[in-house]
Structures are given as structure tokens and as C-alpha cells.
Amino acid sequence: MLAYLLRRLGYLIFVVWGVSFAAFFIAQVVPGDPIAAALGSNARDAQIEAYRIKTGLDKPVWVQYSRYLNRLVKGDLGNSLRTRRAIAADLRDFFPATLELTLAAMVFAILFGLPTGLLAALYKDTVIDVGVRSLALIGGATPIYWLAILLISIFHTKLGWLPGPGRLDAFLIPPPEVTNMMSIDTLIAKDFEAFIDSIRHLILPAIVLGAFSTALLARMVRNTMIEVLAQDYIRTARAKGISERWVIVKHALRNGALPILTVLGNLLGSLLTGAVLTETIFSWPGIGSYATSSAISLDFPAVMGVTLVAGLTYAGINLFVDILYAFFDPRISYA
Amino acid sequence: MLKRMLILALGLLSFTVFAQSARQTTLVVGVDLGDLITLDPQVSYEFSGSLITDNLYETLVRFEGADLSEVKPALAESWSIEAQADGSHKIIFNLRDATFSSGNPVTAADVVYSFDRAIGIAGPSSFLFTDVAKMAVGSTVAANDKTVELSVPANANPNIVLNLLTFNIGGIVDSKVVMEHELDGDFGSAWIRENSAGSGPYVLERWDAGSQIILTANENASRVGSIKRVILRNMQESSAQQAALESGEIDVAYNFTPEAFNAAKSNADYTALQTDSFQMTYLGMNSGEGKPFADNRIRQAVRYAIDQDGIINNLLGGLGRKMQTIIPFGLFASDDTMYYTHDVEKAKALLAEAGAEDLTVEFLVSTGSCGGGIPCADLGAKIQSDLAEVGITANIRQLVQSELLDIYRAQGAELVVVGWSPDYPDPDGNATPLGDYNAKSLAWRNDWNNPASSELAAAAALESDSAKRGELYGQLTKLVAEEGPFAILYQPSVPIVTRAYVNDFIRNAQGNVDFDKVSKTE
Questions:
Q1: Which of A281, B134, B363, B450 can bridge B156 by disulfide, Cβ–Cβ 3.0-4.6 Å?
Q2: Rounded CA gap, B9 and B15, in Å?
Q3: Whether the complex's predicted ipTM surpasses the cut of 0.85
Q4: What does the pLDDT read at residue B354?
Q5: Which residues contact A36 (CB under 8 A, 6 or more apart)?
Q6: Predicted confidence band at B250 (pLDDT cuts at 50, 70, 90)?
Q7: Model-level pTM?
Q8: CATH number at residue B266
Q9: Nearest CA in chain A to B244
């Protein structure tokens, strides 16, 4: 197991290098002068040249790349051209908000996608199944943008049940920043009013972000379970007189877990990097909006930083899922 | 039992009263803070940074309310401009008694430190001091604790310098506090980026990156208002701001769409404010030798071809002012003469005269949004159809703004639609870049070299007699309107919608708002 882990971590380094290499050279071929973009249309030529020298962008590409790698090895992602601060510091500010939102969306997807998918499989070709499948189809086909505005206008503007954009009511004092995840920080500060408010603020964006995943998960669970439930060992288990619940939980679900796990891992990765729209509409200060603003202003160091973190997270999640495989399926062993 | 209930009721009542008064003294603003980089007054050069730093720091002189024609006293209770024998000037400022949020008194040494800091830091706005005001380290001297002398060389205009000092680069920082936070000669910039050390009406309580800025009243300030707390929430989406304003979560919304703004006008719960800006959106026409617009008759034809009213009424929903000259409304010497009308026949005749009946040009249009928040693509399409009507084929090439700027900066654009706003609230902020080829700015980018225009711009920049200066600018705006490489399209307004209980929310054309002047009557 340890040897396997080490080998995988070795791969991870290779992945990081590959991602950084691709990010760096894509940045080189994209047209447009990042320095001129950072300083705006009124900037004087002398100003632009001074900033170019200050940021090292006047040097040849290979010098820039070796400097970049040099810093990367030390864990330094460099400075953003746009915000003029360390990219690592920017990411520390923005990444936790996205992580919090993504995890909430994931919880929503599992809470709704798993049981509905299971129900549809158990009651295959009944009204329940058709209902779940139709919902899944709608959920998978609804544009995030439209869904967000619809939910805001119903649950926030019209009914007033849930708060609108933002992470915390403006009149509440935000907790000191520890993890930069609002719900956790309010708990650390033992401010329960703020904690409840932060959870309420999470609900709508989590639903919007998680809608597609929920639909996908429900269909995936349904199909997998239908397949598993038709297997001989399920019939054998039932023939032995094991209770239906036990058959489903112990025999069917466990065997159906692998493909579901794979999907979950992929979903988490894509949610983390695909929250841009949701973040924009809900004024959520996450990595998605940071990446978009950086890309628009040609802030390549920041874009490379985001790419690297996204790549790492993706690889990390995959590793975690692979390890979980062994847990769910004893036939898989990494020894 | 009764007693207990009574206490409970009283407690609840006092809680509601407290909550009520907290709401009365807290102003929540929904605004796109996407451009916010730093709160260092000597570095910030963005709209939101300027809006905030202007409430954290005081300048020597300032504009009051929406009136930007005359500077008023601020930290300097009086000043005088003394002409020197060599043609240079000395501005002598007498400081009033004031205290920083730290409790330190504001002294002439703080002014000297702040101005030298602006130069030494070489930030994006430093050129205002070094290139426009021609200041250097040593130009500002403390004659005594309360008197500051600023030397202005003969090639700079002391009145422009005064105007510059109203901008946040002239914000006076607490030198003692800032110096304590200096790191590797950075003038404390890393620290002050997200902290405050000024004498303005507010101090920075916290900045949650990407999320919100919270300001609280500065207890030592001389400017005291009824709003004790200002929360600026970063809301990039217009729809988010509309929802939040409707539910009362925010008191002020900055980014309504023209349609939503026009709907808000007739809503009794709202106050819709159409505020001015100094921005302008214009067409740049490359007038260099051998370029499509080298002949002024063709440039005139374009000016006659454009349907400005159609753009303003239909695309902008009325949120813009029609203008044809290079000095925006609201600034000294702005010229509201309309030099041309929408006249298709006249445009065609001019083109025929110039022998350019089937002119084809490349038209650069940004993929982003143009002045007033409308998509540049829409504006480009409207201009394209206006030009087609007179027989000019404009082939639109859509580019990301930054890429478009690269081409434009290198004189590589034939026809381009972009925006401009002056760097400082003085006509020179437009006259020199748009009128003087030698300034290597907009006139240069469109390769329009007109010595008369350059001379007028340079002379007006240095003229200290305001009547004469106004006359020079009159000649310049006429010249550029009739011969220049631009077709000015409009000056966009900034639509702000507040709840009706918000009073005196005044945004001036520079984008600044005195939060201490605002009040709420809920």
C-alpha cells in the first residue's frame, strides 16, 4: 500500500509539472500584452516598460520559465499582475469559499441523487421511476444561469424564505478569518446566529451548483442498481431469506459502489473548477470568479496558479477515489 | 411571572430598538468591486479603490458634492499661489487642526511624506505627480508644523496641480504609522493595501477579498455623519443587485441595467439617480498617410453618418449624454456645441468629394462591454449599419479588450470603438491626450498630427488666467471636432438606484461619494 501511495505521489509530481508546463506555454502563445492589460488604456509607455521590468516579463521565455520553475519548487506561485499580491495569498482567500460551496453542492447531490436513483431502480418502470427520470432529465438540462435566477426570484424575492446572494447577512458581524469557510469560521467563533445564517446562504447556490450532479448521480445510481439487482448473487441472497433491506444495503449497494464512486470523484473535481457561473450570480467570492477576472485581464501568473491548484485537486481526488476502491472491493489490492 | 414577562418584553423591545438603530446608521451598498486591487491611496488607480480611499483619507483640497469646477478647503484651510521670478510657482498650504485615526496629529511632515511616497512608490498613478505636476522628491517642503510649500515648475500649471491633489494619490497618510509597517523600502504598501491610516471620516474595519469591505466611523475625524458603518458588498451581477435591493438587503445598487433603471424610476420605494461620469465612448479613425481616414472629408463623413441619438435612446436606454467635443460635460471649458448632425446625404456627398464611395475598413470592436455597460458588439453593429447607409463597409473584427488595446496602442487600428476617461478632473486630462500628437496618447494612436492642435493643448495646459484658458480650449474643441481623428459618441451616465429612505447619496463625476453626508430615514 505504501509503495503504491509513493508511486502515485510520484505521478502527482509529474502531473504538476505537466500542468505547469502546459499552462506556462499556453500563456505565451495567447495574444495580448498582459502588462498593458494590467495597467489599463490610459497607461503611459514608460509606465508599461517599468512594470514589465519589475515583473520580469521583459526577459526571454526560457529565463521566465526557469525562474517560474525555480519558484514553484519552493512553493512560490509568484505574484499576480492584477492584484499585485502573492498568488498563494489570493488562492488562500478564494479557494476555501469554492470548496465550501462545492462540498455543500456535493452533499445536496448525494442526499437527493442517491436515494432517488435507488428508488427508481427498486420501482423500475413505475410512476416513481418515470418521475425520477423526468426530474433527472430536467435537472441535467436546465442552464445554471436560468435556474439560479428562478430560485432567487422564488425563494428569496417572492417568498423571502432564503437569503439572496452573498455569504452572510450584511448586518451580522463576520467572524475572524481562520479557514475562510464562513460556516466553519462562524462555528469557531461560536457565533451560532451567524452560523445558521451562513448555512442559509449556502442553500440556494448549493442547489444550483449541485442540480446537474444530482441528476447525473440519480441516473447513474438507477442504472447501476438495476444491473446489480439482476445479478445471480442477489437472487441467491434473496433465496437464502435475507431481508430485502440487507440485500440492498450489503449486497447491491456495495457492489454498485465502484462506478458511483468514480462518478462522484469526477463530479467533485468538475464542480470545484466549474463553479464560475454560480459564483458570479451569487456574488460568491470563489476561485471561479477569481480565475475569470484573471483570465480577462491576461493575468497569466494567476491563471497558472489556479490551473495548478485545480490540477492538483483533481489528481488528489482521483487518488483518494482509487484508495477507496480497495476499501469497497476487497479484490482490489494495492499491495 | 408577570415581572419576568415584563423584563422579557423590555429586553425584546430594546433589542429591536438596537437593531433598528444599527440599520439606520449602517449603509449597505451593492457594487461590483471586481476592479479593487489595493486601498493604498498612493497606489490605487481603480474606481472602487478611489471610492473607498476617498472616505479613508483626506486630501489638502477637495471637491464638494457633485460640483467639480472649484476646489474647496479640506486638510488645508487656506492656500495661496505665489508666482516666482523664473516662471515657476509656489503653492503654500496652511493646515487646519486634524487628527489621524491613530490619535496622531496631522502635520506638514505627514504631507511631505505622503507626496514623496507617491513619487517613490512609482505606482500606476505616480505619473500624475511626476509627469503632469512635474513634482519630484523635495518639491514638497514643511515650512513649519502647519505650513506646506509645494514648488511647481514653470512647465506645469499650479491650477492643474490643485485639481490633481483632490485625487486619492494626494491622500495624506499617517507617516508614523505607515513607517512602522515599512518592509524592504516598500513605503508600507503591503500593509496599507488592506489597512487604513488616515484622517478621513471612516477607517477600514475589514476587507474580505472578493466579498466585502466594511468601513466604520473614524472617532477622531472632523467629518462626522450619521452613517457609522458602511458595507460595500461585491455584487458583480446586476440581477443580484436588483434582488438584494428589492428585499432590502442592500440600500444602494450601483449596477442596474438601463431597463431595470428605467423601471425603478416609477417605483415609489426607490430613488433612481442618473449620475454623471467623465467617461466618453468614441470612434478612433486612423488618419495617417495612406490610411483609410487620411482625408478629413472622410472623417467628417463618418461623423455625419453616425446616429448618436439612436445609440443613446435605443442602446443606452437614455443613460448617456450626446457629445461631440473632447472635453466632457462637468469639466471646466466643456463645449456643448453640436458641430454636426445625423445627415446621410451630407456624408455621402463628402465621401464622393473625397473619391471614397466604396471605402472598406477593418473595424476593431472589443468582446467586452463599452461605456454605459452595453455590449461593444451591439454598439459596433449599430455603427456598422450607420456606416453602411452612407456606403462605408466596416468589417468588424472582435477582439478581447487587452488585445485590441495592443493593436490600437501601436497605431495598428483603422477604425476602433473604445472609451476614455481623463486621469484627473481638469480639461487638460482630455485635451492633451486627444489633441496633442506629441503626448503619444490618443491623437498619436490615430496618427493625427496637427501642429495647431498640439500648440493649443500645450498653451492651454499652462495658461493660469482662466478666461484665456477657456478661450484656448474653445478653439481646441472646435478644431478637434471638425478635423480630429475622432467621432465622439456619448458620455455614459452611471445609473444608481437607492431605497427611497436613503438621502443625499451624491456621486460626483469622478465616482466619489462622501458616505458621511448620506443619511437614512427608515
A1: B134
A2: 10
A3: no
A4: 94
A5: A43, A48, B402, B405, B406, B409
A6: very high
A7: 0.81
A8: 3.40.190.10
A9: A164
